[in-house]
Amino acid sequence: xxxxxxxxxxxxxxxxxxxxxxxxxLPAAKDRMGFSDAVVSAVLLGVCVAxxxxxxxxxxxxxxxxxxxxxxxxxxxxxxxxxxxxxxxQLPVYLVAVALYGLGLGTVDAGSNMQGTALQxxxxxxxxxxxxxxxxxxxxxxxxxxxxVAALGVSALTLVGVVAFVQLGLASAxxxxxxxxxxxxxxxxxxxxxxxxxxxxxxxxxxxxxYVLDAAVSTWSTIYLADGLRASAVLAPVAYAAYQAMVLLTxxxxxxxxxxxxxxxxxxxxxxxxxxxxxLIVLGPAAPVAVAGFAVAGLAVGAVVPIAFxxxxxxxxxxxxxxxxxxxxxxxxxxxxxxVIPGLLGTGAALRFGFVAPAxxxxxxxxxxxxxxxxxxxxxxx
Length: 382
Prior knowledge:
There is one protein chain. It contains 14 helices and no strands. The chain has 382 residues and is mainly α. The protein folds into 2 domains: 175 residues, MFS general substrate transporter like domains (Growth Hormone, Chain: A); 174 residues, Up-down Bundle (Growth Hormone, Chain: A). Helix 3 packs across helix 5 and helix 6 crosses helix 11. The longest helix has 33 residues. The protein is globular and about 55 Å long. The chain starts with a helix and ends in a 12-residue tail after the last helix. The relative contact order is 0.14.
């Protein structure tokens, strides 16, 4: 593996590890500072809002200095934020650190996707599926690390502080080892070609619905099995584990599948499988059927997200960093929507009807997926 590929892969992995340790440290933060579940919800919402701003920050930096600098800035912000989260003993300090983390999260999300699409363009073969699989592995590793330190009697917030120095290492090493990219413009010469706004909205809609489904499953799958289907404490978390396993498996095979069958065919198939998985959740009379539904739904998220960002990078190659930064914002809109909608549509056994909304969303973007091509001329919508 070449050094730029290794470094970009490390960026995706570090992002997955960092987010996993932050969210799994929420119970430890609650115990230290004594805040309520309502504050936890507000924290997660604040992270999404700040992350959207972070995507804009990545855009602003990448336009002037290139995506390599944008990604390093993002990891630098995360270093400061994670240290603050680890050391905070007062709620106001913790909330400021979390907001700063959200800013860094969005900056790294956008910056890593900029670097990933640039790496893919240079290699001439699909790579984003594999890069996203590295992110998923990082998330699993972060969760396992949190479980490990808990077994040793160490606070999960201490682990957050350790991970902060991992992000600092990437920020330092990345200045010379991330993929060098040219900025889209300088202060005295703005690019003449306008951004393809219709294409951004089209590709962004794919990202949006994928994260609606992802957030719905992440937030409600365990609750639905436990409260709605009366599954045991052992079985209830299996739904989310099955979902994540399928996401990882799909991301590992997405790149060769795109090479063989084309971006459009793979995206359409993934969306249809995702809708079918949601249908199993809604119609399934028992926990095993629901678990299978969550697993099948993972096919959509696993394939659609890397395919969408690959398409975004081809919308306007000369300004791909700006396009990706804007498409990345749809990620957080989808995350907030997916986390909220199922809970509004039902509770207990009726929570299953909350998964009708993600299914409909997946079907609504099928026309967009059908128009995806393996090669997009410069300046044309994907």
